[in-house]
Amino acid sequence: MDKTNEQERSQMLGNMDIRKLLFKLATPAIAAMVFNALYNLIDTFFVARGAGEVAIGALSIAYPIQMIILSIGLMIGIGSASVFSRAYGRGDKESMRKTVNTALFLNLVLSSSVALVSYIFIDDLLYLFGARAINIDYAYDYLSVILIALVPFSLSVTFNHLTRAEGRAKIAMISLMIGAILNILLDPIFIFDFGLGLGVRGAAIATGIAKTASFIYILYQAYRPESALKVHLPTLHKVDFKMVREIVAIGLPSFVRMSLGGFLVIIVNNLINIHAAEDVAHIYISIYGVINRLLRFSLMPGFGLVQGMIPIVGFNFGAQFYRRLHDVIKFTSKLLFGYFATVFIAVLIFAEPLFSIFSREADPFFIQEGAMAFRIVIAGFVFVTYQVILSSVYQAMGYPVRAFFISLSRRFFFFIPLAFLFSNLFADGVLGVWWTFFTADLLTGLLSLFIFRKEMHTLRRRFA
User: Fold this and answer.
1) Ordered mean pLDDT values, 10 residues apiece, the chain (464 residues)
2) CA angle (58 as vertex; 185, 108 as ends), nearest 5
3) What is the pTM of this model?
4) SS3 assignment, position 195
5) Where do the structural domains in the chain lie, given as residue ranges?
6) 156: Cβ–Cβ under 8 A, 6 or more apart, which residues?
7) For residue 187, which phi and psi values (nearest 5 degrees)?
């Protein structure tokens, strides 16, 4: 890698004004994540228009496996980015090289294994995830194809984090934009009758092509001379197992948080099947699928902001610049809280128009019930600001146990027991499921705020 470029990026991470630096790194991350979430949203829109509301439920049923393989990419990406950032701050070239090769090998093995096992047991998995006679064919058509695409998708997620860790956030942004734009262009061609007319299966094929193109681009960029990421395929099998343990330990909270998201989808789908009338259960599952995608799209700018913060935290923690560390965490927290509050207000106002977009027949039940559920589900998300911040900060610093505890709090400690409790306490069990989201977010937010205040006090003492 060119030494001048490396020195410039080191100077940028360690000396540039915190606010300017955060926006410099976060803006491409925000754009990339918005585009990435946008493809999911438009994918859902085209499926709804091409096959109706019931097909949206099929995407929701296939979602857990997608979340698990995405979790692998996220775990390895965040873990390796943390190791890489701190090695970058120290100027340790050998550790930087080992980190990249180890991350690539580990991702290939894990994501391929999960995809293969899932394909073998696909029928059993679909039933477990909540599929029933009315939507199982749609779910099979989608999942049987998307499993192939998830390996390059997981790899691209890992390399996106590593690319941002070296300060090349624009490359990460372009990679995700390539995937999103290509997916949007291919969807109507593969789904609708004026094209290939493949319906839900066509949506999966379009996604697979787009995700593969995204990975090819970012891998190509890792080979360029100006990159600090040194991929050496002939020695890929020579894995540093000590580094594997460190990467997994740091990234494990993200894996648990994301894969628990998939597990939650399974729980919610099955609780809906239990408590909703048989003739509308599939509609409620489709409502939940739309909510998931609208949430991802509307909240991605906030998560992109945090992604911009992570390399700053990792570098400055490694360099022991504690005042800069404190300032960037505090500033990011304020911005994130404000953004989540703005999203909540927007959903209160526009919930019905948003749901009407995904109804081919303008079904009043789907639109009204969906809008009500969306308002309840998103009401508590503003309280999760400090959980998102803390989990990311701990991972960037290399504190896996703390990050693991924070990540588990919302989905494991609170959501799962409350979902079973509320769905049985409420006369309308499905309504109880929606209120579980708000309650879990509120409790998680209060816990995280308490820990956040203590950590910020500790940082102030270090530079006082």
Assistant:
1) 58 78 83 74 83 80 86 89 81 78 88 91 89 81 87 88 81 84 90 85 89 90 77 69 85 80 89 89 90 85 86 80 83 91 92 89 89 93 85 78 77 89 94 94 88 80 71
2) 70
3) 0.78
4) coil
5) 18-463
6) 73, 175, 176, 179, 211, 214, 215, 218
7) -50, -55
